[in-house]
UniProtKB/TrEMBL annotation:
Any one Pfam family match given in the protein's UniProt record, by short name: adh_short
Claim: Glycosyltransferase is one of the keywords in the record: no
Species this chain originates from: Streptomyces albiaxialis
Family under the similarity heading: Belongs to the short-chain dehydrogenases/reductases (SDR) family.
Transmembrane segments: none
Protein name: SDR family oxidoreductase
Domain of life: Bacteria
Keyword field contains Oxidoreductase: yes
Residue span(s) of domain Ketoreductase: 7-190
Keywords: Oxidoreductase
Length: 243
């Protein structure tokens, strides 16, 4: 039996990209998957794919900027499977622009999704993990927080805030809970879909040499499959072509 088989794993941002790839890989390895994202049609299709392949999955439309949605997804996991082993906080948006452009609504959305969404996950899952005596937080961050460049100031700021909170959580967690931060570099997803049209071509070009979402999923699986008492704290995974 692998360190993944039988675990109940909740994934936000599961409708596409890294979240979708992670759900498929973990289900293949025997996990029971609880899917959350804003587009229910994608969740329904993904759950069907998992079940057709012999896996188990449930889903609920989840907007991580609404604490009640995150709470409902945690409760769905407990009601259906009786526990929650892992929370993968993967939902995120990257609305890149120059600070001079004053795209304040974009800044607020990144703070709400990338930062507050993770905090809501912690608020809902941490009491469950404490009650159970086990649990694992996996937070998707970004290499944007490791190398600060123009256009990414607010995005990188939200990701670095999650990195800082995750380290604080790890130190407070004690010997029964685990905390992992996964920092992907460029990944071929729909990340640039909603960006400023002036920025999007540059990001699309960078994505041409990006990782597949499955590469990040394998990094997440590596952290989850470790035996109890082993905490993989920080994983950086980037394409070899990325500077």
């Amino acid at each position: 039996m692998s360190g993944i088989e039988g675990k109940v794993v909740m994934i936000t941002g599961a409708g596409s990209g890294i979240g979708e790839a992670t759900a498929l890989l973990l289900a293949e390895r025997g996990a029971k998957i609880v899917l959350g994202a804003r587009r229910p049609e994608r969740l329904e299709a993904l759950a069907a794919r998992i079940e057709e392949a012999g896996g188990e999955a449930v889903w609920a439309r989840t907007d991580v900027t609404r604490r009640e949605d995150v709470s409902g997804l945690v409760e769905l996991a407990r009601e259906r499977y009786g526990k929650l082993d892992v929370l993968v906080s993967n939902a995120g948006v990257g609305l890149l622009s120059r600070l001079d452009d004053l795209r304040v609504e974009d800044w607020e959305e990144m703070i709400d999704v990338n930062l507050k969404g993770v905090l809501y996950g912690i608020a809902e899952a941490l009491p469950v993990f404490r009650e159970q005596g086990f649990g694992h937080f996996v937070n998707t961050v970004s290499t944007a927080g490791l190398r600060i460049v123009p256009l990414q100031a607010v995005y990188a700021g939200t990701k670095n805030a999650v990195r800082t909170i995750s380290e604080g959580l790890r130190q407070e967690a004690g010997d029964s809970l685990r905390v992992t931060v996964v920092s992907p570099g460029a990944v071929r997803t729909d990340f640039a879909e909603r960006m400023d049209p002036a920025v999007k071509p540059r990001i699309d070009k960078m994505m041409e040499t990006g990782l597949t979402p499955d590469a990040v999923a394998r990094a997440i699986a590596f952290a989850i499959e470790q035996p109890d008492g082993v905490d993989v704290g920080d994983i950086v995974v980037r394409p070899t072509a990325q500077g």
